[in-house]
């Protein structure tokens, strides 16, 4: 013994500690990876030793290596060992390592529950503290459920050090186990008034975090927080509370009114900039929420803007940044107050800090008016020229376009100016936003009719100088503008001065290097131009010129016919044929222009992108109704994606023989080959045909290439600046004229033609340069206004949307770990008590239901309750009555606000959605634990559950119950692995070694152990043979005993209860990937909801939707197979139609369901 | 909520990384690299906030950092934290380290990553601020050290007997 200790100490002297490891790594800079891998080998050796000090040292080093990016999850089990050391030093090392590398997918976490519980209740506060800190980083839903009660007890610990940690960690527990929120909340609220400031701050922290996600549930705490705000001196707490109020005020404007005064006081008095800033922010939030009701808060706004100006002018860049950020919030509701600080914000554009410049840009967006738009954009264009980094320049570009195009080009008075700005922007090299400019050009040209002539001229110049834009086609997004240019020139070709020249520009061989979609537009619009040119020539009766034009097209188009792009090829060949035909007609001196133009007659109107979506469904039209009778069953699944489930009653159907014999197939293949050989447009594998590239004719046309490496200012391209001057002059002139007029008609009333939507400044003075009519996008006549703000269904905080004011029901108490022995004595009782997790499941379904009700109630209550004062608690009886009234109210409301309740309970009153089962009658107790084996000493029951994280793992929970009067110890659990399923053994153990059960059983006691199995295929059920060996120790003797068992892995055990939304469910069924099967159960005489609950409970399904005696259910296997059921019942007969992407899995699951019901 | 706390030096070598959400080791390294890339190219005397990188949360999150001599201290936080408050917190953290290590320098952090973690654990827990009072943090850290020492003493007894 002594020798062993000595040996251990000596060994340790040669071990590297963390410092040695770090030093070593620093000394091996060239071969770091190699050095670390030898270190990892050493660590592996150290972990094999029994000495806990050596292990702890090794784990400490692993934590360091984890930071460097090495995966150390293989040592998870050793980390757990170190965590369970009795020494604080090692325990802390273990918990630190766990907090760095454990996560929900780590299997060994399951083994830590008891250890953590022990540490939490340790007499040493630092053990508890370390456990809480560690747990906060790796808490899982299981841990949260099992430990919630222990942590809640710690919230009332005598030491504030523990209390504050326990309070903080509750937030993590709530997230993972939402059911704990209601039972724990009263105590959490209590902690807001804890004498220790640290605990108080922790409680504020947690509640603020909760309230931020679901503010309406926390309105009733407002008075308490208000008190805290006026009494607390801790800036951290104050900041949190003030931020919280910012989230609450939009829900309760009366709260906002109360807040203004204390907040302004704080703004005046505080010296802490952080607090000042948050106060200003919340005042802004209050003002925004009040802006509709009470406009008379100009003093507060002035104060805010004033303070923000001080921040922005400060030399501290941080304050400047935040000031601008807050300013942009004011801008939304009180633009005028911000606009007076335009000078300051324009100054910020010159700041060396990019984040500040970006914030200033955001502000500018809201500050433009008709008067200053040109000036601001000019300034921005200067910055564009100066900007070096492409990201900032791209940001400027998008901002310029945003600013100009906002609210339907409201602030643009001169569209010629805007077009020239856009054209100037095309000179930016390497921008990613070519398509943005292009879409603006298209939009303006289409919607502003008056500008088309000018736009077309500009676009023609662009096309002519296309080579400037296409310098580097691969990476240059700017060539996208050619798409717009080509389309505009084609569509509005009547405005072109020299269509022939543009046509030629569009058919240059270099065009073939452009991206395919642009070429396609080129080809199509060349045809439009062709039509225009023809018409022009025929109008002048210049048939010679007309024929030359046709020849030009015939010469150039073959280049596009050979394009690799399908669309280009198709359009080009189509048009080529057309032109050839026209040429023939021309040679016969037939006038064709009119007919060719007719091809492109008619105007294209802009259609709003959402137009289709907004057409309401006319009354009486049921989109889901059959147009024809549903097709019969014989046809394959793909042909009838609409049939969700097979029809119940068998139908007569005719079978169709689609089989074709081999000969026929071969013949068809031959024919197809022939066709391809004869088709000139079919690109064959031989390379020769691709080389026809330089078609004769193309070379002969002289193309003048002005090859400029630097984009120069192209003659004819407009300079936007000139418009500024022009505009100034024009305005001056107008002013002068108006003055004259006014003098003349002094008595006449002014402002006849005032526009309603004039900007904030005296905009009525400015009239647009030319009469602009902005064509609004077409909408269907009776389009509905709709808002698409759906919450993310995956948000974990959604689960925490729980009414906290309702009295706590008995069923909601947190699961308390009880000692099982007393309860487990009689087999009848043991069902209920053994299954703690299931009970909570049941509870949770109840709770969910309650939650749902509460949600409905909340929605109704928003108006009537005065949240400022605590809501009085009413008795349950009264509540029911209120509920009825409210339901009626809501029905009425619903009718009124039909459109606003899109995502409510649209399913109707009697349908239940998403995994909840209506409680009509109490359910009989259920348990999934089934007997594994039993003898006179011990009884084992087990349940198998899938693992969410890992698609090849299942967890077998076994409850061992000692039935004898003796002590049972050294239990070893072993299973004979099959090829498909294997027991997970710790690293280093052989494939036939047993697992030690981590506890001993005194007489009459039972305990639960979990074993992880890995499985490969899950489509078939399986049985594994196993043995449990143990030592029975009584007073006088001890004997070895063993018990054989068979573990039955049903297919059900591979299913995981997964909620599914009905629309996702419908989509899944429509996808047609699922195979069907069905099942009929006779003589079932239990209520339908019991039946559903049984399927849910025993087979891990969730109800998607239930309507009367019909329900759809969903589950998912651990490997992601979808299983869908449609359950229908009619007097004692239950039919289940099922669909799954894995037929054999489905068959087995159905068999198991059948068995479940044959038992009862 | 604080999403992550990173300390790295002027060359991007990590000195401490604490993630309050789970990422794989590879992603963690990428985040550190990306954050270093974002932060290191910024001049001194420009603001200490920037929009988060793509890997950790995107625009929802903010990076708040301070640069001391050879080290960057970066906190990645969401909108519920006060920007200036977190800046103060970083200052408190560094001052605490300075007290605990007596004139802290990069070498202290390099060789005693575990201690830095333990001090940090007294300030931030599971992504939420636990304590901002420096003297309280130091008291707890010292109490931990005392516990550790007493255990080492007991532990070393057999060795001295020998």
From TrEMBL, chain A:
Gene Ontology biological process terms from the UniProt entry: anterograde synaptic vesicle transport; Golgi to vacuole transport; neurotransmitter receptor transport, postsynaptic endosome to lysosome; protein targeting to vacuole; synaptic vesicle budding from endosome; synaptic vesicle membrane organization
Biased composition (Basic residues): 740-753, 843-852, 874-883, 891-903
Keywords attached to this entry: Acetylation, Coiled coil, Cytoplasm, Golgi apparatus, Membrane, Phosphoprotein, Protein transport, Repeat, Transport
Chain intervals with Acidic residues compositional bias: 775-792
Listed Basic and acidic residues bias regions: 647-675, 724-739, 793-842
Gene3D superfamilies in alphabetical order: Leucine-rich Repeat Variant (1.25.10.10), Longin domain (3.30.450.50)
Region (Disordered): 647-683, 713-928
Subcellular location: Cytoplasm; Golgi apparatus membrane
Superkingdom per UniProt: Eukaryota
InterPro entries xrefs: AP3_complex_dsu, AP3D_dom_metazoa, ARM-like, ARM-type_fold, Clathrin/coatomer_adapt-like_N, Mu_AP3
Matching SMART domains: BLVR (SM01354)
Chain ranges of the AP-3 complex subunit delta domain: 660-805
Membrane topology designation: Peripheral membrane protein
Main location, first listed in the record: cytoplasm
Family per similarity comment: Belongs to the adaptor complexes large subunit family.
The protein, known as: AP-3 complex subunit delta-1
Source organism of the structure: Cyprinus carpio carpio
From TrEMBL, chain B:
Keywords: Cytoplasmic vesicle, Golgi apparatus, Membrane, Protein transport, Transport
Pfam families per record: Clat_adaptor_s
Signal peptide interval: none
GO cellular component, one term: AP-3 adaptor complex
Stated name of the protein: AP complex subunit sigma
Keyword Ribosomal protein: no
Residues covered by the AP complex mu/sigma subunit domain: 1-147
Similarity comment text for this entry: Belongs to the adaptor complexes small subunit family.
Function, in words: Part of the AP-3 complex, an adaptor-related complex which is not clathrin-associated. The complex is associated with the Golgi region as well as more peripheral structures. It facilitates the budding of vesicles from the Golgi membrane and may be directly involved in trafficking to lysosomes. In concert with the BLOC-1 complex, AP-3 is required to target cargos into vesicles assembled at cell bodies for delivery into neurites and nerve terminals.
Organism expressing this protein natively: Cyprinus carpio carpio
